[in-house]
From TrEMBL:
Keyword Lyase: yes
Known function: Catalyzes the anaerobic formation of alpha-ketobutyrate and ammonia from threonine in a two-step reaction. The first step involved a dehydration of threonine and a production of enamine intermediates (aminocrotonate), which tautomerizes to its imine form (iminobutyrate). Both intermediates are unstable and short-lived. The second step is the nonenzymatic hydrolysis of the enamine/imine intermediates to form 2-ketobutyrate and free ammonia. In the low water environment of the cell, the second step is accelerated by RidA.
InterPro entries named in the record: ACT-like_dom_sf, ACT_dom, ACT_ThrD-II-like, Ser/Thr_Dehydratase, Thr_deHydtase_catblc, TrpB-like_PALP, TrpB-like_PALP_sf
Transmembrane domains' residue ranges: none
Reactions it catalyzes: L-threonine = 2-oxobutanoate + NH4(+)
Cofactor(s) needed for function: pyridoxal 5'-phosphate
Name of this chain's protein: threonine ammonia-lyase
The organism of origin for this protein: Propionispora hippei DSM 15287
Family label: Belongs to the serine/threonine dehydratase family.
GO BP terms: isoleucine biosynthetic process; L-serine catabolic process; L-threonine catabolic process
Alphabetically ordered keywords of this record: Lyase, Pyridoxal phosphate
EC nos: 4.3.1.19
Record flagged with keyword Lyase: yes
């Protein structure tokens, strides 16, 4: 089991290597939750994730013989960058096996750090199996992303920093994938002050540690795709499972809509970019921890390495769900002036017209008519209702989507 001394030793290794990330506060977070919320901004860490802490601590402790043979790892992206950065610092060759559908930004960043990237499998667990086969052939040292004492100790330095910055913290909320992050943070927290509550968070689409804790044994959960790719782990580690049993007070799950809306909230209101795995802790604070009130809560935003294309889709989806963007379909006579009349009517409500699609050749559109799809920017649901009622009053049959 990992001791507080192990974590303090890891902090010494990481001194002047990693950023000592700060705690960010936001009044809207406090008002919404009824608590005092502090965000531990590991999305601002080197490589954009906490993973560099554990990876660097592990590689710093390699023997000379191990360094000569190089290292290999499996990762959905963040551990990959941490291993690649540490290997480059020590002049060690690194091979990283990543899922085929890992975010392109993470694949590119890992290669730019000098690692040899192999794409194999659908999710992390598939890449893990492929990496083990390669390791048997090459005899390189396998750097496990979570079930390794030195990796866990490195992640535990986050717990030390939280305690130093906020000694009277009452609840610490941490994302869970394989369990390395929460195992290290919980060990640091509980061995320093057992009264502090530690809460783990998983995505409902891949709740492997949640299910394992419920059944009191390690179980494999095949789950489904999730935007929280960094914590999409089918099977928890044995060491991490044991430590979660010992130190973690509860585990909750959040769904995909809650994660995506939290990413949008953090971007728009807190002015910070979080990936799906990093946002689950804040999503839990919003949606699962109402039984905590008037508490000082630290939530670990574990990473910010999100593909810009995914981020764009999340923003668009969030705007639609919040009533700030809508697509309006209607049919108009295919005669001069009718499109102008429709757009003038829509504009009179104060909306912003973003795009217009004008089609005559659709199967269900009669000769002499055209279908018009207008993408509009609105203030809220009430604004949408105003537009719809005005069009209906003027004899337009409309559909909103």
């Amino acid at each position: 089991m990992i001791t507080l001394a192990d974590i303090i030793k890891a902090r010494g290794v990481l001194d002047n290597i990693i950023h000592k990330t700060g705690l960010m506060t936001d009044n809207l977070l406090d008002e919404t939750t009824g608590n005092r919320i502090f965000l531990k901004m590991e999305n601002l860490q080197r490589t954009g994730s906490f993973k560099v802490r554990g990876a660097y601590n592990r590689i710093a402790n390699l023997t000379d013989a191990e360094k000569e043979k190089g290292v290999i790892a499996a990762s959905a992206g963040n551990h990959a960058q941490g291993v690649a950065l540490a290997a480059k610092a020590y002049g060690i060759s690194a091979t990283i096996v990543m899922p085929r559908y890992a975010p392109l930004s993470k694949i590119k960043a890992t290669r730019q750090l000098g690692a040899n990237v192999i794409l194999e499998g659908e999710v992390y667990d598939d890449s893990f199996e492929a990496a083990l086969k390669i390791q048997q052939e090459t005899k390189a040292t396998f750097i496990h992303p979570f079930d390794d004492p030195l990796v866990i100790a490195g992640q535990g330095t986050i717990g030390l920093e939280i305690l130093e910055a906020l000694p009277d913290v009452e609840v610490v909320v941490v994302p869970i994938g394989g369990g390395g992050l929460i195992a290290g943070v919980a060990a640091a927290i509980k061995q320093s002050n057992p009264a502090i509550k530690v809460v783990g968070v998983q995505t409902r689409n891949m709740p492997s540690m949640f299910e394992s804790m419920g059944q009191q044994k390690i179980v494999t959960v095949h789950g489904s795709a999730t935007i929280a790719d960094g914590i999409a782990v089918k099977t928890p580690g044995q060491l991490t499972f044991d430590m979660v049993q010992q130190y973690v007070d509860e585990i909750v799950t959040v769904d995909e809509d809650e994660i995506s809306s939290t990413i949008l909230f953090l971007l728009e209101k807190v002015k910070t970019v979080s990936e799906g795995a990093g946002a689950v802790s804040v999503a839990a604070v919003f949606n699962r921890l109402s039984h905590y009130q008037n508490k000082k809560i630290a939530a670990v935003v574990s990473g910010g390495n999100i593909d810009v294309n995914i981020l764009s889709r999340i923003v668009d989806q969030g705007l639609v769900k919040s009533g700030r963007k809508v697509y309006l379909d209607t049919i108009i006579p295919d005669k001069p002036g009718h499109l102008w009349k429709l757009l003038q009517l829509i504009s009179s409500t104060g909306v912003n017209i973003l795009t217009i699609n004008h089609k005559r050749d659709k199967r269900d559109v009669l000769i002499g008519f055209a279908q018009v799809e207008v993408e509009i920017e609105t203030a809220d649901e009430e604004h949408i209702y105003t537009v719809k009622k005005l069009l209906e009053k003027n004899n337009y049959c409309t559909q909103l989507c």
